[in-house]
Design goal:
Blueprint: H1 2-22, E1 37-40, E2 46-48, E3 57-63, H2 68-83, E4 89-96, H3 100-110, E5 115-119, H4 123-127, E6 135-139, E7 145-150, H5 156-166
Parallel strand pairs: 3-4, 4-5
Antiparallel strand pairs: 1-2, 1-5, 3-6, 6-7
Length: 167
């Protein structure tokens, strides 16, 4: 009898805890950005957002090679990176859970001019509340999230451009 009671109490305590931990992380514009430290695709050195804080705004797009909307968004990100000052902006693509050779082949084919970072296990994507791709996050020079957008439809690039020009 006592054992059944303990099992019921255990279940009643564990279920709410598991549900709390399983909830997606909620990220809002104005939140302090989580630090990112991941390997670069090209030279396997670390990319660290903390190295850019106070120097540049960081435009991050979480993507995957199989993601149609990511591929559609990419030319606009490249165009924005060419139009905006390299002194003020750092554009970064963070690949989600793919093998390096597949990502490298995609980067070569698409002629991507900015840094490619590997989120091998998807932990950084999850820590940014990621649920679908692409996910664009802008971290301002002060380390705050100034823009957060999931998905891509025609016209999103105009909104992003206006935001970046306002920084």
């Amino acid at each position: 009898m006592m054992r059944q009671f303990r099992n019921k109490i255990f279940v009643l305590l564990i279920i709410p805890l598991a549900l709390m931990l399983a909830e997606p992380k909620i990220i809002n514009v104005g939140d302090k950005a989580k630090s990112i430290t991941l390997f670069r695709l090209n030279d396997h050195t670390y990319f660290r957002t903390k190295d850019l804080l106070g120097k540049k705004h960081i435009v991050i797009s979480f993507f995957a090679t199989w993601c149609g909307p990511c591929t559609k968004e990419l030319p606009y990100l490249i165009q924005l990176s060419e139009e905006l000052s390299e002194d003020d902006f750092e554009f970064v693509l963070i690949d989600l859970k793919e093998k390096q050779d597949k990502v490298q082949s995609y980067v070569d084919k698409m002629k991507i001019p900015f840094q490619i970072i590997l989120d091998k296990y998807g932990r950084t994507f999850e820590s940014y509340g990621g649920e679908s791709l692409p996910l664009v996050v802008v971290i301002d020079k002060d380390g705050m999230i100034s823009y957060y957008h999931t998905g891509y439809v025609d016209g999103d690039e105009i909104i992003l451009k206006k935001h970046l020009e306002s920084l």
